[in-house]
Sequence to fold (184 residues):
Amino acid sequence: MAGHAVRTAIVNGKELPVVDAKEMLTFTVTEKDVKHADPRSPKTCAFAVAIRRITNADSVCIGHKFAYVPWDTDGDGEPDIVRRYMPELKATKVIEDFDKTGKFRAGEYRFNPPSKTAKLGSWRARKNRSEQRQQKVKGRRYEKKKTRVINPQFVGVRNMTGMVHFILNNKKATQDIKPKVVNG
Fold:
Protein backbone atom coordinates (compact mmCIF):
# COMPACT_ATOMS: atom_id res chain seq x y z
CA MET A 1 0.00 0.00 0.00
CA ALA A 2 1.40 3.38 -0.87
CA GLY A 3 2.33 5.50 2.12
CA HIS A 4 2.46 2.65 4.62
CA ALA A 5 5.80 1.51 5.97
CA VAL A 6 6.79 -1.67 7.75
CA ARG A 7 7.38 -0.95 11.45
CA THR A 8 8.17 -4.47 12.72
CA ALA A 9 9.71 -7.52 11.12
CA ILE A 10 9.83 -11.15 12.23
CA VAL A 11 13.38 -12.52 12.22
CA ASN A 12 14.06 -16.04 13.54
CA GLY A 13 10.61 -16.10 15.15
CA LYS A 14 11.18 -12.82 17.03
CA GLU A 15 9.36 -9.59 16.24
CA LEU A 16 11.96 -6.82 15.86
CA PRO A 17 11.47 -3.07 15.43
CA VAL A 18 12.29 -1.59 12.03
CA VAL A 19 14.29 1.65 12.18
CA ASP A 20 15.63 3.92 9.47
CA ALA A 21 19.37 3.53 8.95
CA LYS A 22 21.47 6.55 9.89
CA GLU A 23 24.61 5.66 7.95
CA MET A 24 25.40 4.35 4.49
CA LEU A 25 26.01 0.63 3.88
CA THR A 26 28.77 0.00 1.32
CA PHE A 27 29.53 -3.57 0.26
CA THR A 28 31.03 -5.60 -2.57
CA VAL A 29 29.13 -8.28 -4.48
CA THR A 30 31.49 -11.05 -5.64
CA GLU A 31 31.09 -13.58 -8.45
CA LYS A 32 30.53 -16.25 -5.77
CA ASP A 33 27.58 -14.22 -4.42
CA VAL A 34 26.13 -14.00 -7.93
CA LYS A 35 26.41 -17.81 -8.41
CA HIS A 36 24.37 -18.41 -5.23
CA ALA A 37 21.73 -15.80 -6.10
CA ASP A 38 18.24 -16.23 -7.55
CA PRO A 39 16.51 -13.66 -9.77
CA ARG A 40 13.12 -12.29 -8.66
CA SER A 41 13.77 -13.29 -5.05
CA PRO A 42 14.10 -10.51 -2.46
CA LYS A 43 15.70 -12.86 0.09
CA THR A 44 18.19 -14.64 -2.18
CA CYS A 45 19.20 -12.02 -4.76
CA ALA A 46 22.91 -11.23 -5.14
CA PHE A 47 22.63 -8.19 -2.85
CA ALA A 48 21.00 -10.27 -0.10
CA VAL A 49 23.65 -12.99 -0.41
CA ALA A 50 26.47 -10.42 -0.20
CA ILE A 51 24.96 -8.59 2.79
CA ARG A 52 24.35 -11.88 4.60
CA ARG A 53 28.00 -12.80 3.99
CA ILE A 54 29.23 -9.47 5.37
CA THR A 55 26.86 -8.99 8.33
CA ASN A 56 26.19 -12.66 9.26
CA ALA A 57 22.46 -11.82 9.22
CA ASP A 58 20.12 -14.76 8.70
CA SER A 59 17.43 -12.99 6.72
CA VAL A 60 17.90 -9.96 4.51
CA CYS A 61 15.11 -8.65 2.27
CA ILE A 62 16.00 -6.49 -0.75
CA GLY A 63 13.38 -4.60 -2.74
CA HIS A 64 13.48 -1.95 -5.44
CA LYS A 65 12.80 0.89 -3.02
CA PHE A 66 13.93 -0.44 0.36
CA ALA A 67 16.27 -3.02 1.87
CA TYR A 68 15.72 -4.51 5.32
CA VAL A 69 18.85 -5.74 7.15
CA PRO A 70 18.79 -7.27 10.69
CA TRP A 71 21.51 -5.90 13.00
CA ASP A 72 22.99 -7.10 16.29
CA THR A 73 23.49 -3.91 18.31
CA ASP A 74 24.41 -5.40 21.69
CA GLY A 75 26.93 -8.04 20.51
CA ASP A 76 25.11 -11.16 21.75
CA GLY A 77 24.93 -12.74 18.29
CA GLU A 78 21.17 -12.23 17.88
CA PRO A 79 19.70 -9.34 15.85
CA ASP A 80 17.98 -6.65 17.91
CA ILE A 81 16.70 -4.30 15.21
CA VAL A 82 16.08 -4.27 11.48
CA ARG A 83 17.61 -1.33 9.64
CA ARG A 84 15.87 0.08 6.59
CA TYR A 85 17.98 1.34 3.66
CA MET A 86 17.28 2.80 0.22
CA PRO A 87 19.31 1.22 -2.61
CA GLU A 88 21.07 3.82 -4.74
CA LEU A 89 19.85 4.30 -8.32
CA LYS A 90 22.67 2.16 -9.76
CA ALA A 91 21.68 -0.72 -7.46
CA THR A 92 17.99 -0.38 -8.37
CA LYS A 93 18.83 -0.66 -12.08
CA VAL A 94 21.00 -3.72 -11.42
CA ILE A 95 18.11 -5.35 -9.50
CA GLU A 96 15.75 -4.74 -12.44
CA ASP A 97 18.27 -6.13 -14.95
CA PHE A 98 18.96 -9.18 -12.77
CA ASP A 99 15.24 -9.90 -12.42
CA LYS A 100 14.70 -9.62 -16.18
CA THR A 101 17.82 -11.29 -17.58
CA GLY A 102 19.41 -13.24 -14.71
CA LYS A 103 22.71 -11.44 -15.32
CA PHE A 104 24.37 -9.48 -12.51
CA ARG A 105 27.44 -7.24 -12.54
CA ALA A 106 29.65 -7.95 -9.54
CA GLY A 107 31.17 -4.86 -7.94
CA GLU A 108 30.83 -2.33 -5.14
CA TYR A 109 27.36 -1.01 -4.28
CA ARG A 110 25.88 1.36 -1.74
CA PHE A 111 22.62 1.49 0.19
CA ASN A 112 21.80 4.92 1.63
CA PRO A 113 19.75 5.93 4.67
CA PRO A 114 16.18 6.86 3.69
CA SER A 115 15.72 10.43 2.51
CA LYS A 116 13.82 12.91 4.68
CA THR A 117 10.56 12.28 2.83
CA ALA A 118 11.00 8.49 2.82
CA LYS A 119 11.60 8.07 6.55
CA LEU A 120 9.20 6.02 8.64
CA GLY A 121 6.23 8.16 9.68
CA SER A 122 7.00 11.05 7.33
CA TRP A 123 3.87 10.36 5.25
CA ARG A 124 1.72 10.82 8.35
CA ALA A 125 3.20 14.24 9.11
CA ARG A 126 2.67 15.33 5.48
CA LYS A 127 -0.91 14.06 5.56
CA ASN A 128 -1.68 15.94 8.81
CA ARG A 129 -0.21 19.20 7.48
CA SER A 130 -2.21 18.83 4.27
CA GLU A 131 -5.44 18.26 6.18
CA GLN A 132 -4.80 21.29 8.37
CA ARG A 133 -4.23 23.46 5.29
CA GLN A 134 -7.45 22.21 3.70
CA GLN A 135 -9.48 22.95 6.83
CA LYS A 136 -8.17 26.44 7.45
CA VAL A 137 -7.47 28.75 4.54
CA LYS A 138 -6.98 32.51 5.15
CA GLY A 139 -8.59 32.33 8.61
CA ARG A 140 -11.82 30.78 7.30
CA ARG A 141 -12.81 27.28 8.16
CA TYR A 142 -13.89 24.97 5.38
CA GLU A 143 -15.43 21.56 5.63
CA LYS A 144 -13.08 18.73 4.94
CA LYS A 145 -13.45 17.52 1.37
CA LYS A 146 -15.28 14.25 1.02
CA THR A 147 -13.29 11.62 -0.77
CA ARG A 148 -14.79 8.97 -2.98
CA VAL A 149 -14.43 5.47 -1.52
CA ILE A 150 -13.06 3.01 -4.04
CA ASN A 151 -13.46 -0.69 -3.38
CA PRO A 152 -10.68 -2.85 -4.82
CA GLN A 153 -12.10 -5.81 -6.72
CA PHE A 154 -8.89 -7.48 -7.84
CA VAL A 155 -5.43 -7.40 -6.34
CA GLY A 156 -2.64 -8.71 -8.54
CA VAL A 157 0.96 -9.12 -7.44
CA ARG A 158 3.47 -9.00 -10.25
CA ASN A 159 6.17 -11.58 -9.60
CA MET A 160 8.99 -9.83 -11.42
CA THR A 161 9.03 -6.49 -9.58
CA GLY A 162 6.93 -7.15 -6.51
CA MET A 163 4.64 -4.24 -7.39
CA VAL A 164 1.00 -4.43 -6.32
CA HIS A 165 -1.57 -3.33 -8.88
CA PHE A 166 -5.16 -2.46 -7.95
CA ILE A 167 -7.71 -2.89 -10.68
CA LEU A 168 -10.81 -1.10 -9.52
CA ASN A 169 -14.46 -1.04 -10.47
CA ASN A 170 -17.59 0.46 -8.96
CA LYS A 171 -19.49 -2.72 -8.09
CA LYS A 172 -20.90 -3.33 -4.64
CA ALA A 173 -18.48 -3.52 -1.71
CA THR A 174 -20.04 -6.79 -0.59
CA GLN A 175 -18.17 -8.78 -3.20
CA ASP A 176 -15.10 -10.70 -2.04
CA ILE A 177 -11.64 -9.47 -2.85
CA LYS A 178 -9.78 -12.27 -4.59
CA PRO A 179 -5.97 -12.03 -4.84
CA LYS A 180 -4.48 -13.33 -8.05
CA VAL A 181 -0.82 -13.63 -9.02
CA VAL A 182 -0.01 -12.12 -12.42
CA ASN A 183 3.09 -13.51 -14.10
CA GLY A 184 5.31 -10.65 -15.22
Summary: Residues 8-118 form one domain. The longest strand covers residues 14-20. Helices lie at 31-35, 46-55, 89-101, 122-135.
